[in-house]
Amino acid sequence: MAKRRRRKDGYRPKPIVVAVYLVLRLIVVGVLISCIIRREYESAFTCVLVLVLYMLPPIVQRNFRIELPTTMEIIILVFIFAAEILGELGSYFIQYPHWDSILHTTTGFISAAFGYSMVDFLNRNKPHHVKLSPIFMAMVSFCFSMTIGVLWEFFEFGVDYLFHTDMQKDTIIHAFSSVTLDPTNSNVPIRVDHITDVAVNGESLGLGGYLDIGLYDTMEDLFVNFVGALTFSIFGYFNTKSGSNRIAKQFVPVVLPEEEAEEAEPVTE
C-alpha cells in the first residue's frame, strides 16, 4: 500500500479524466490549426473558446474545494466538444435534427445535479446542519435546472436579436393558428392548414412549408431540459431518501471540508 495525498487545494486529477481531456484537447488543437490555415478565424476563435472552457473544471475544483465525480467531469468535457466542435463547426446541429435535443437533455440533467449538490451540501454541513426532505431536494434540483434552461433561451434570443445570428433554429411547419387573422378582432384563432410554401417579399423560399422563427426550437429545448431535470430529480429523491443511490452519486459534485482536502488517501499500487 502506498499513500497518495490530495493537494492542499483539495484537487486530485483522475487518470481517466486526464486521458479524455488530453485526447479531446489534441483534437481541438488540430482543428484550430486547420482553421487558421484555411483562414477561418471565427471557427478558430470557437476552438480557443473550447480550450478555455476545458480549463474551467480543474480551476473550479482547485479554488472552491469542489470535487466533480469522474462520470460528471467526463460528461462535461464531451458535452463541450459535442456542442462547439461537432455541433457548431461540424454542423451537427443541421445535419442531425436531434443533436440539439440530446445536448439540451444533457444540460437539464447536469444542471439538476449541480442544483442538488448545492442543497445537499447544506444538508451535510455540520456547523450549519439542516435536515431537508427528499421531495424538497428533488424540487430544488428540478427548479434550478429549469431556471438555467430558461436563462439560456433568453440568452439565445438576445444574441439573435442583437447580433442577427440564428441560435434559435427555425422549424418548417405546415399549419398554425392565429387570432391576428381574425377579421372580427374577436380573439378567435383562425386555422391555416396544408401550407406547402411561404413567400417573403413576393419571392418563394422553396421550403415546402411555413418558416417558424425559433418558437418550436425554444419550446422543444425547454421540454427536453424538463426531461433531463426530471430524470435527475427522481435519482436525487431516492439518493436523499436512502443515502445509497449510486447513480445520483456519479453526478453530484462534493464540497470538500478543509481537513478532508489534506487527508492522505490509501491506494493500491
Structure report:
The protein is mainly alpha-helical and 269 residues long. The chain has two domains: 224 residues, no CATH class; 32 residues, no CATH class. Helices cover 61% and strands 10% of the residues. It has nine helices and ten strands. The strands form five sheets. A two-stranded antiparallel sheet has the order 1-10. It has a two-stranded antiparallel ribbon with strand order 2-9. It has a two-stranded antiparallel sheet with strand order 3-8. The chain is flat and about 65 Å long.
Keywords:
two-stranded antiparallel ribbon, disordered C terminus, two-stranded antiparallel sheet, mainly alpha, disordered N terminus, 10% strand, 269 residues
Describe the protein's topology.
Elements: E1 2-5, H1 15-37, H2 41-64, E2 66-67, H3 70-89, H4 92-95, H5 99-124, H6 134-163, E3 171-173, E4 176-178, E5 190-192, E6 199-200, E7 203-204, E8 210-212, H7 215-242, H8 246-249, E9 254-255, H9 258-261, E10 264-267
Antiparallel strand pairs: 1-10, 2-9, 3-8, 4-5, 6-7
Helix pairs in contact: 1-2, 1-3, 2-3, 3-5, 5-6, 5-7, 6-7
Q: Give the helices and strands as they follow along the chain.
A: EHHEHHHHEEEEEEHHEHE
Helix and strand content put the structural class at: mainly alpha
Radius of gyration: 23 Å
How would you sum up the major sheet?
2 strands, antiparallel
Oligomer: single chain
Low-confidence stretches: 1-5, 260-269
Total number of helical segments? 9
Q: Domains counted in the coordinates: how many? A: 2
Helix content: 55-70%
Overall pLDDT level: 87
Shape: flat
**Count of DSSP strands:** 10
Strand content: 5-15%
Major sheet: arrangement of strands: 1-10
Report the span from N to C terminus. 6 Å
